[in-house]
Amino acid sequence: MTKPIDKNKKIRARRENKAPTVRRKIVANTKRVTKKRKNQKKNKNFLKRFLSNIMRWFLWFLWFFFSRFTVLVSIVLIGFVIFEYSRIGPLDKLIDARTSGSVTLLDKHGQVFAWRGNQFGGAITANAVSPHLKNAVVAAEDRRFYKHFGISPRGIASAIRINIREGRSPLRGHGGSTITQQVAKLLCLGTNFDPTTGTSEADFEKDCRKNSILRKLREIPFSIAMELKFTKDEILMIYLNRVYLGAGNQGFEAASQRYFDKSAVYLNPSEAAMLAGLLVAPSYYAPTRNLQRAQNRAAVIIDLMQKEKYLTPTEALNSKKYPAKLSSAAKEQFGGYFADWVSKSSPSFLTKRTNADIYVKTTFDSKIQKTAEDVLKNIFEEKIEKESEAQVAIIVMSSDGAVRAMIGGRDTEKSGQFNRSTQAMRQTGSLFKPFVYAAALEKGYKFNSKAIDEEITLDVPYSGPWTPKNYTNKFYGKMTITEALAKSINTIAVKTAMLVGLESVREIANDFGISGELAPGPALALGASESTLIELTGAYAGILSGGVNITPYGLNEITIVGESNPILGRNGGLGERVMEWENAKQLIYMMNTVIENGSGRRAKIKHREAGGKTGTTQAMRDAWFVGFTADYVIGVWMGYDDNTPLKGVTGGGLPAEIWQRIMMQISRDLPSRPLPMINPRMARLNTANDDVLDIDASGLFKKVKPGSKPRSILRSLFARPEED
User: Fold this and answer.
1) Co-location of 79 and 137 in the same domain
2) Domains in the chain: how many in total?
3) Are 131 and 28 members of one domain?
4) Which of 137, 191, 575, 618 is deepest in the core (most CB within 10 A)?
5) DSSP string for residues in 655-715
6) Cα–Cα distance, 594 to 579 (Å, whole number)
7) CATH code, 222
8) What single DSSP character describes residue 644?
9) How far does the chain reach from its first CA to its final CA, in angstroms?
10) Is the torsion defined by CA of 413, 416, 422, 427 positive or negative?
11) pLDDT in tens, 106-159
């Protein structure tokens, strides 16, 4: 009997049959996924291992390369350090390696007023110098000085970053150099200047200071070698003695003496900070240039000193509250033109080509110099337009030629400028006329010899007819040559020169010290030749001294520092007689009338006799006044460097006024002494040669029959004196 089919059972069986099939499929898929994952993981591990191997290989290569490179560089560096170590000289030879000595100039009283050359001042040690100076320098220049080994990679990196940030090349601007590296530069990496190479010392030092990659690399072994050879204080000692601080100051001792008139041993914090502030820019922060700016810079250094705990807050506050002040000599800054003139006129083997430090005792008078500068300043403030570029030169000298003061231009505070007192060759104008009349007096004519002021025409060889004119374009008839000089009459000066001979005029002018080439024609009498203010002032001093040749001088003696006996004495003064004493007294009287009644009346000084002469050149390009009292001779020149005509200025104007103000002030405390001149009331009239000088149409002088009794020279004929 067939069993009935159980449908539910069939369904269960079907389900059961299907289930295993599904499980098999799932298992199979799982195996495939697992296998795939294993393959992926295997591939991934392989890549990782590959990259890891490459990285390990690369790192190994870097280690291999740099370890060996470092070893190689170290060996090379050690070699260079040893080499540089052997080249560094002994400490005492590194303190002062100047190739030329210093020149300290003393005034007539023995006080320092100027310095020339590289001032050293003497060696100072880091142990003996003021601790404030050491601290100020370290705080300002290298605060980690006592911690590094000569170079500071951190400092160099910081400097490069700052330079790039500020738009400069990496090595231009901030250098990041340690004090040791700066010493390496100061020592030119151990190379001394050799004058036989043809290179100037300035160019040599400029090359030493260049910042380049090669030079920076060379600094490293040299700096390390110095750190090995010297102590930190010894390196600092070299730095303190050799660093340049502007104005010729080589080292802090020289700068301390220059600005504070004291040794660097005794510097207080504010003074030390001011000197340390010079390191970054010696000229810009020079206290003699701008004291306030130097004090502000010093305040920054004081803050750095406080930050490094070299100063307490109270000490820092007091140092800024009471800033450093200059010594009187540094503050005044008188005599720059004079100092340059003396230095240049002294023997070069003593002042320029020697390693010796010398003292130069001069004729300079700082009081007179200040007076002259103050007068000049006041005149320009009162009477000259601010935008005017007119220049002035002034010389004050004693009757023996000793120069007491000198102004070579309106910029009186600087040295090294063009000196218009000694270097400018300018036409002399009527300032030359006293030499014309000196020649006439030597020929036998007298102060009261007569001449006629009238129109004349001369036939000048190679030039043709020449008719000299007076300043006023008028003629005044008969007068004495004394009156002619006082009124600066051109025609009579020309007549006199032609009468006595142009060669005689040239000869006596040369004898008095006018050394330039003198004009060949009759225009010589009117100052067509050129000369310098110092020559003309010296020549007038010769007239005052009785008709002798005088060489202006500023040097009294030269002494080597440390020695008592001078090695050179005075280089000028009174020379040979070139004019008879009696004739010189007549000429002095004639020049006295210029001030008393003539063109130089603005130079008149109450209760004091004076003589001089005005001078104005063609087209008013130059205005002069040179004159004297019994004590001093003063020369004044005004004009433009480019020969632009002066507007409304003649020798009898501003130059005479400048002369009068200076002479009155410097003579205030002196007794009033008379000039060595004749007394016209007691002088015998010229009877032996009582002629009237005249000239005919052909240009030849002739004697004119004496007329009536000549008018007394005491009678005024100065109706309209010329402003000449």
Assistant:
1) no
2) 3
3) no
4) 137
5) HHHHHHHHHHHHTTTS-----S---TTTSPP--TT--EEEE-TTS-EEEEPP-SPPPPTTS
6) 21
7) 1.10.3810.10
8) P
9) 173
10) negative
11) 899 988 887 776 666 667 777 888 999 999 999 998 888 888 887 776 666 665
Question: How confident is the model at residue 714, as a pLDDT?
Answer: 26
Question: What's the rounded Cα separation, in Å, for the pair 228 and 222?
Answer: 10
Residues 255 and 306 placed together within one structural domain of the fold = yes
Buried b (16+ CB within 10 A) or exposed e, 460-480: eeeeeeeebebbeeeebebbb
Contact call for residues 358 and 104 (beta carbons, < 8 A): yes
Note whether residue 158 is domain-resident: yes
Which residues 6+ apart lie within 8 Å of 528 measured at CB? 427, 519, 521
CATH code of the domain covering residue 541:
3.40.710.10
Contact 393, 421 (CB under 8 A): yes
Enter the tokens of residue 376.
């000049």
Please indicate whether residue 10 or residue 678 has the higher confidence score (pLDDT): 678
Kindly tell me if the per-residue pLDDT of 503 is higher than 80.
yes
Give the pair of three-digit tokens for residue 396: 């004050």
Could you tell me if 615 and 430 are in contact, meaning their C-beta atoms sit under 8 angstroms apart? yes
Supply angle C-alpha 597, 602, 603, rounded to 5: 90
Classify residue 136: in a domain, yes or no. Answer: yes
130, two tokens: 């003021």
Interacting residues of 218 by C-beta distance below 8 A, sequence separation 6+? 189
- Asked if 91 and 238 count as a contact pair (C-beta separation under 8 A), the reply is yes
Give me 227's structure tokens: 């750190």
Distance of CA 380 to the CA centre of its chain: 23
Do 444 and 515 lie in a common domain? yes
Q: Are 252 and 243 in contact (CB under 8 A)?
A: yes
Per-residue pLDDT for 79 more than 50? Answer: yes
Q: Which two tokens stand for residue 92?
A: 């005492």
Helical segments of 127-192, H only: 131-141, 153-165, 179-186
213-229 and 7-87 helices, crossing angle to 10°: 70
What tokens were used for 653? Answer: 């104007």
> Do 230 and 321 fall within a single domain?
yes
Say if CB 433 and CB 665 are below 8 A apart: no
Helices (H), 88-130: 91-94
CB 663 within 8 A of CB 634: yes
For residue 715, tell me if it sits in a domain: no
Query: Are both 24 and 99 inside the same structural domain?
Result: no
DSSP string, 250-293: BSHHHHHHHHHSS-GGG--HHHHHHHHGGGT-TTTT-TTT-HHH
Domain that holds residue 48: 13-87
Cβ–Cβ contacts within 10 Å for residue 300, how many? 15
Amino acid letter, residue 58 = F
- Which of 668, 693, 712 is the C-terminal boundary of a domain? 668
Tokens of 274: 């001011």
Nearest 5°: the CA angle 96, 99, 101 is 80
Tokens 């050879």 found at: 229
- On whether both 285 and 181 belong to a single domain, the answer is yes
The residues pairing with 632 across neighbouring beta strands, listed in sequence order, are 398
339: enclosing H helix or E strand: helix 336-345
Give the per-residue pLDDT at 655: 93
Is the confidence at residue 425, as pLDDT, over 80? Answer: yes
CA-nearest of 113, 107, 124, 94 to 192 is 94
Assess whether 24 and 142 both reside in one domain: no
Looking at 280, 305, 332, the residue that finishes a domain is 332
